[in-house]
Amino acid sequence: MKTFKAGSWVKQRSYKSFQPNKINQAWKMEDMELLNLLSQADRQLGRLDMYSDYIPNIDLFISMHVLKEATQSNKIEGTKTNIEDALLDKEDIDDEKRDDWEEVQNYIEALNTAVVNLEKLPFSSRLIRETHKILLQGVRGKHKLPGEFRRSQNWIGGASINDATFVPPIHSDINDYMNDLEKFAHNTEYFFPDILKIALIHYQFETIHPFLDGNGRVGRLLITLYLVEKRILKKPILYLSDFFEKNRTLYYDNLTRVREKNDITQWFKFFLVGVIETAKSSICTFDRILKLQKEVDTKIQTLGSRLHNAQLILNHLYQRPVVDAQKAKEFTSLSPPSVYKLIEDLEKLNILTEITGDKKGKTYLFSEYIQLFK
Predict the structure, then answer these.
(1) At the N or C end, where does the chain have fewer CB atoms within 10 A?
(2) DSSP state of 156
(3) What's the pLDDT score for residue 193?
(4) DSSP state of 120
């Protein structure tokens, strides 16, 4: 890595674009600090992955991890939708907040669909384009070629390309670069640790900037998809956007440092620290979920004949911790009076919290559960 060269600036008409070097080649690690961080990251990912087997109904809880990832990844791009807002239906969102809300919902759909698509598609340009298409459908980037690589020059920062902070490679090279990235992802001829592979893929993807819009969100989404495809994680339970958002300046500075100073090692170290801290945080969250689940199960034992229906509502709440009487009726097939009585009981047990303040059409949150993700 001491001889790593990120690429070069190439004169175009009135500007210079950055043409990155290809990454599908042999890599050699010599930095002992990097190797130590890699070992720690491997251990923490192994610990986290154990929860996929340890928690019988872990799929119940993945939805909230995805929702948190969606809000944090979009927050990096400037949206202001929080977890509580993201849980609400569109008609319950103020008009001025709906654009942000829709982008978060698209991210959730894009990620969930991509995870399912991994069962039939490899980690590839096709998967990336299909994911991007969902991400931009019907939102502010809907006119910026959803699902297609760009056919024109883009840039980052600045009022125009002439004062941009970064200009990615010219559009005619995109397919070549993405083919190289895809080959690197699946190259078995040269050994390179998968965690560092996806770190490099993320950097290279953001440098190529293959789409007119949504590159940051897609690039962060790819991290989880890669780890799942390579079976490093059995389930999609690691998301780095929260770490990147909390360290946003360092995130961008370290990506820029690679291009300006050829310092890929510093980017790898930052990425590995993110994996370590995020895995530890996720483990802590799962432990707290199990503790809360045990406490809630103890509380609802007092409900007697209503216990079964209370459990049906809770199974929904662990996936989507918001409910109203109509939805509760759908889960339980109870009569309206029985539903209202059960919700009232769950309020008294401090499981549900009413948030609308209305006499009719009340909405309830499983607030204690939501707090575990904040």
Answers:
(1) C
(2) B
(3) 96
(4) T
Question: What domains can you pick out in the chain, each with its CATH number?
Answer: 7-285 (1.10.3290.10), 296-371 (1.10.10.10)
- Tens digits of residue pLDDT in 168-209: 999 999 999 999 999 999 999 999 999 999 999 999 999 999
- The predicted structure's pLDDT at residue 134: 97
**Inter-CA distances, 131 with 128, 156, 205, Å:** 5, 22, 14
Contact 240, 272 (CB under 8 A): no
Pairwise CA distance, residues 324 & 207, whole Å = 45
Joined tokens for residue 77: 């791009």
Can you tell me the distance from the alpha carbon of 365 to that of 347, in angstroms, rounded to the nearest whole number?
10
Rounded average pLDDT per 10-residue block, the chain, 374 residues: 90 93 93 96 96 86 94 93 92 91 95 95 96 95 95 93 94 98 96 96 98 96 97 95 96 97 97 98 95 96 94 94 94 92 96 85 93 92
HSE-up of residue 138 (Cα within 13 Å, Cβ side): 11
DSSP string, 231-266: TSSSSS----HHHHHHTHHHHHHHHHHHHHH--HHH
DSSP-assigned letters across all residues of 268-296: HHHHHHHHHHHHHHHHHHHHHHHHHHHHH
Among 259, 272, 154, CA closest to 216: 154
β-partners of residue 24 are: none
Q: Which residues contact 370 (CB under 8 A, 6 or more apart)?
A: 64, 83, 84, 87, 321
| Token couple for 114 | 């991509």
- The per-residue DSSP string of 331-373 comes to HH---HHHHHHHHHHHHHTTS-EE-S--SSS-EEE-HHHHHTT
Q: What is the DSSP string of 201-215?
A: HHHHHHHH--SSS-H
Helix, strand or coil, per DSSP, at residue 323:
strand
